[in-house]
Amino acid sequence: ARLAVGGAPQGLTRHRITAVITNNLTCPAKRRGWAPARETGMTLSPSSNLFIVLIGALAALPALAVDNRSGAFAMTRHLVHCGHREIAFIAGPKGNLDAEERLQGYLAALHELLPGAEAQIVAGDFTEESGYRAGSQIARQKRLPRALFAANDSMAIGCLFALREAGLRVPEDMALAGFDDIPTARFTQPPLTTVRVRIADLGGRALDQLVATAA
Q1: Which of 198, 190, 151 has the alpha carbon at shortest distance from 168?
Q2: Other beta carbons within 10 Å of 13
Q3: pLDDT given at position 101
Q4: CA 110 from centroid of its chain's CA atoms
Q5: What is the pTM of this model?
Q6: For the chain, is the Cβ count within 10 Å smaller at the N or the C terminus?
Q7: Cα dihedral angle (99, 105, 107, 110), rounded to 10 degrees?
Q8: 38-66: per-residue pLDDT in tens?
Q9: Count of CB atoms within 10 A of residue 127's CB?
Q10: DSSP-derived secondary structure letter, 136
Q11: How many other C-beta atoms lie within 10 A of the C-beta of residue 78?
Q12: 188 and 155 Cβ atoms separated by less than 8 Å
């Protein structure tokens, strides 16, 4: 069994199931025309024993999803409640559902909590390198935002390095937040403020649905 979610491989081995648990954004199911099987998971063909459970929403296919929009809304609200009125956002890659939903949450929070505030969106692609580039770009601006919210922790960590190189202090000069709560986030200096995604728990739920599907 090959999985993309921590905590689930042992369960698949125990249940002797050949399956894939994957982030749907990298899953080729839609391109290849795979069809939903029962209420959860998918099969390659009526005779196939390979089941697939998706992490994240994909049109017409069953999945377990992270509420990215609400998480991004909550983090933006937190930054607003901390007194920040100019909040920039480092976006994820275009066409990525998680990235799009997190951007929507940021924009919705600005609209609701800071009417008239201008959204400041910097392009990224979920990598540390793109976060570094975004941080360098922001640091060169004549007018700096008071807070930066990166659509994932990897970009936030790259951004942190760029801000330090530019002589900016976090959080004294600029607040910085991320999304996902990856293990590395707690070892940055200062520790990264982030939205926690319980990916191992999500993987366990995916396994439970997969076992039920295959039964």
Answers
A1: 190
A2: 10
A3: 95
A4: 19
A5: 0.73
A6: C
A7: -150
A8: 333 444 334 445 555 555 555 455 566 67
A9: 15
A10: H
A11: 17
A12: no
